Amino acid sequence: MTTSRLPVFALALALVPLLSACVASSVVGLATAPVKAGARAIDTTADAYDRVTVSQSERDEKRGRAIRQREERYGRLSRDYERARRDCMRSDADACDAARGLYDEMSALRPSVPYEPE
Fold this sequence. Notes:
Elements: H1 2-52, H2 56-89, H3 93-109
Helix pairs in contact: 2-3
C-alpha cells in the first residue's frame, strides 16, 4: 500500500510549485482589481466628457464640412441642370421636366450656400 501512495504523493509534491504560482497570481489579481476598476471608471468619465463637450475648432470644422457638402451638392445640381437644359433645347420633353425639378432644388439650396466674392 505504501508503494501505491508514493506516486500520488510525488505527483502532489510536483504540483505544489505550480499551485503556489496560480494562487499567488490570483492574490495579485484580487489586490489590483480595485485599482484597475477605478482607473477604468476615470477613463470612462473622461471619454463621456469628451463626447459631450465640443471645442470651437471642432464646431468650425463641422460647419466647414457641412458648407463644403452643400457646395458640392449645388455644383452637381448645376451641372445636371445645364445638361438637362441643353437636352430640353433639343426638344426633349423629359429633359425639360428634369431641368425644372433641378432648378427648383437649386433654388431651395441656394440660400444655404455661402457667397464668396471672387
